[in-house]
């Protein structure tokens, strides 16, 4: 029987679940080997990062599945994403500038984490911020309002990043303007998570991370 993955709550690695609900979810995510495992073929590949490959979901073109390719140097980004998305879901933040995460899926390439696939209205894959700037799809000035909106979003909902960089931002055309999605590099790396529990510290942290990102953007400013 085919499982409806969209019903599954975000969970950390299934092997670490202990609570009753999570245990139920764990069994719910189990697939009989060979019968319901999702096959990921090269034709579905959307993008490749330093650690993960991103494939279009073969049964749902609106979603993607990320699997680890660089296992030797893995920083366990899928596991970290699953944990942080669970925190965000518990806080009921809107998923307007980050893709929704739908939990784990077994694939032919190992366990993958499923997300909304960010595409154009005409179903085309979209440039990352650095691609768009490099090939002059937009200038920094043109994308600036969309970046400001992304900053406002991170600030308002105190969403922390561990790898805020141009390659992790996807730019979607919206009429004559743009909308930015942060598709990777979320997370709270603090050992003692003080900023997660204080609005004031949380805002300071978002500002600090954004200032660092702005420094990275300087190289794209017209001279
Ligand atoms: N939700 C998404 N929607 C559309 N494309 C995506 C999405 N997530 C990742 N990608 C594409 O896949 C690439 C690699 O994904 P990413 O999560 O950045 O991997 P890594 O963690 O290895 O850096 C991205 O640069 C982007 O092109
Ligand atoms: Mg990345």
TrEMBL record:
Which Pfam family would be a valid example here? YrbL-PhoP_reg
Looking up InterPro entries in the UniProt record yields:
PhoP_reg_network_YrbL
Highest taxon listed in the record's lineage:
Bacteria
**Protein name stated in the entry:** Protein kinase domain-containing protein
Source organism phylogeny = Bacteria, Pseudomonadati, Pseudomonadota, Gammaproteobacteria, Oceanospirillales
């Amino acid at each position: 029987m085919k499982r409806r993955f969209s019903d599954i709550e975000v969970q950390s690695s299934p092997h670490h679940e202990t609570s009753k609900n999570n245990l139920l979810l764990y069994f719910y995510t189990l697939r009989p080997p060979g019968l319901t495992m999702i096959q990921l073929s090269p034709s579905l590949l959307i993008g490749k990062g330093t650690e993960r490959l991103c494939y279009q979901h073969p049964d749902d073109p609106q979603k993607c599945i990320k699997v680890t390719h660089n296992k030797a140097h893995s920083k366990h980004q899928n596991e970290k994403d699953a944990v942080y998305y669970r925190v965000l879901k518990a806080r009921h933040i809107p998923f307007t500038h980050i893709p929704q995460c739908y939990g784990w899926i077994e694939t032919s390439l190992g366990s993958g984490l499923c997300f909304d696939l960010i595409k154009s209205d005409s179903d085309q894959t979209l440039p990352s911020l650095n691609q768009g700037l490099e090939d002059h799809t937009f200038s920094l000035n043109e994308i600036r309002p969309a970046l400001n909106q992304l900053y406002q979003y991170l600030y308002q909902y105190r969403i922390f990043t561990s790898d805020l960089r141009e390659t992790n931002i996807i730019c979607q055309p919206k009429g004559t303007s743009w909308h930015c999605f942060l598709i990777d590099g979320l997370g709270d790396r603090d050992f003692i998570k003080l900023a997660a529990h204080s609005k004031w510290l949380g805002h300071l942290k978002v500002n600090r991370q954004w200032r660092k990102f702005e420094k990275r953007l300087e190289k794209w400013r017209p001279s």
